[in-house]
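Supplementary notes for students who missed Thursday's class. We covered one full example, reproduced here. Read the sequence, then the structure, then the short commentary at the end.
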Amino acid sequence: MLTPNRLARLFSEFIFIMLGVLLLWLDAGGKLFVNRHAWSWQALSIAMLLWGAWALARPGGRWAAGERWVRGLSLVLLGSVMLATSRVPFVYVRPMMMTVAVILILRGLLGAWLAMRAR
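Structure (token representation):
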């Protein structure tokens, strides 16, 4: 049975899936343009890296260890790819943004599976 807690967690994971699909669709259609040299892009990349490292480093929390690892690693991967995007030649930006989209989709799918499994 879906409890309100599980339903809220599933809905948040669904948002990550939809965000990844939207990014993938925009990037595949050539409609996604990012200013990868802006200070805001750099700040967001570093913030995601730090947030992911903090999520991995804290001792417990409200989530199970598997969910903590999924959340933390996805943030670290997203921050790393976004930070690397600002340093690569322009021809590699599109595949790297597709990588960001795939990471978001996988994070949503894995998070939804972890939220639904029996405890």
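Commentary. The chain has one domain: 4-116. Residues 4-28 form the longest helix (25 residues). If anything here is unclear, bring it to office hours.
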